[in-house]
Design brief:
The structure is a single chain. By secondary structure, the chain is an alpha/beta fold. The protein has one domain (about 10-100): Leucine-rich repeat, LRR (right-handed beta-alpha superhelix). The protein has 2 helices and 3 strands; from the N terminus they run E-E-E-H-H. The chain has helices at about 80-85, 90-100, and strands spanning about 20-25, 45, 70. It has a 3-stranded parallel β-sheet with strand order 1-2-3. The longest helix has 12 residues, at about 90-100. The radius of gyration is 12 Å and the shape is globular. The mean pLDDT is about 95.
Amino acid sequence: MAHANNLTGLPAELFQAPSLRVLELSENRLTGIPADVARLPHLTILSLSNNLLKDLPIELGRVATLANIILDGNPLAEPWASLWNQGSNAVIAHLRQIAGTA
């Protein structure tokens, strides 16, 4: 969708697409993901590789359909770096736990 566009932010309109299932945002210059991502109730795949992300919003844990998150090539801070080394499922499980949806 928005692959390799040098994006530094995301337009608000993006979060007005409730039927969106796959969001491809790799190879941009994103430093954060807005909490509005929780307004995508059918999102199953979120590709964020090769951005400038250090942290993830807790609100991602509220997206019950999220099955795969891709974070390769980001300067992730802890605990995200350690969790990412364990894989997508570990990241999603942690997000759900801190969001109170686990």
